[in-house]
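Ops channel
N.P.: pipeline sanity check, posting one input/output pair.
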């Protein structure tokens, strides 16, 4: 299915401020869009802009951007974009990937995982690629047949201690007053040359010191 955008929606999707697409680089944005289609959640114009930039790769195949910061309004579609990026990483990277999702607390991460992400995944064409889904409290995870896994984690820095991670999503960064989640993610990504940190949030306030 081909999705097209009206001139009005395309104009509204233009970011107020953003890193522009580098035309000389290849991008895996089309792959991310294809995964979104399989999930039954075709990318909106603004999501495709993000996917194309996030998906840029260097000549050796490594991601051009190791850290991505995305700020979007509420109810704009960040959940479905995050899921497409995570599933793409899990299924289309060529080798097993460890992907983690965090929110403002472990409770919120598990709730988002169970109530929003899993229903999309389980009802989609991607379900056939899943080996097993774990739902025990504190042990939630999706394990794919290729060995990749996606799991929600608590928001503490220690939650990622001892792990080796390929993609870390820090959602709802506006609630963070310290860089604890980032401090936990960076060492876990250190030995992975392809690793990416995806920080995403709605706009913060005066207490959103980390996001600011």
């Amino acid at each position: 299915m081909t999705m097209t955008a009206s001139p009005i929606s395309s104009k509204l999707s233009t970011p107020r401020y953003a890193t522009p697409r580098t035309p000389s680089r290849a991008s895996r944005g089309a792959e991310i869009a294809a995964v979104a289609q399989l999930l039954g959640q075709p990318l909106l114009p603004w999501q495709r802009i993000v996917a194309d930039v996030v998906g840029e790769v260097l000549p050796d195949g490594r991601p051009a951007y190791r850290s991505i910061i995305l700020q979007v309004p509420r109810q704009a579609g960040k959940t479905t974009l995050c899921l497409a990026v995570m599933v793409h990483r899990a299924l289309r990277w060529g080798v097993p990937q460890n992907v983690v999702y965090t929110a403002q607390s472990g409770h919120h991460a598990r709730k988002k995982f169970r109530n929003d992400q899993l229903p999309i995944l389980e009802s989609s064409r991607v379900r056939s690629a899943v080996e097993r889904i774990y739902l025990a409290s504190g042990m939630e995870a999706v394990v794919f047949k290729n060995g990749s896994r996606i799991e929600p984690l608590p928001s503490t820095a220690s939650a990622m201690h001892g792990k080796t991670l390929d993609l870390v999503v820090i959602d709802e960064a506006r609630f963070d007053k310290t860089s604890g989640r980032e401090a936990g993610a960076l060492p876990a990504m250190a030995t992975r040359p392809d690793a990416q940190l995806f920080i995403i949030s709605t706009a913060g306030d005066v207490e959103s010191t980390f996001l600011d």
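N.P.: looks fine end to end. The beta strands are 26-27, 56-57, 67-71, 98-102, 130-134, 141-144, 149-153, 167-171, 196-201.
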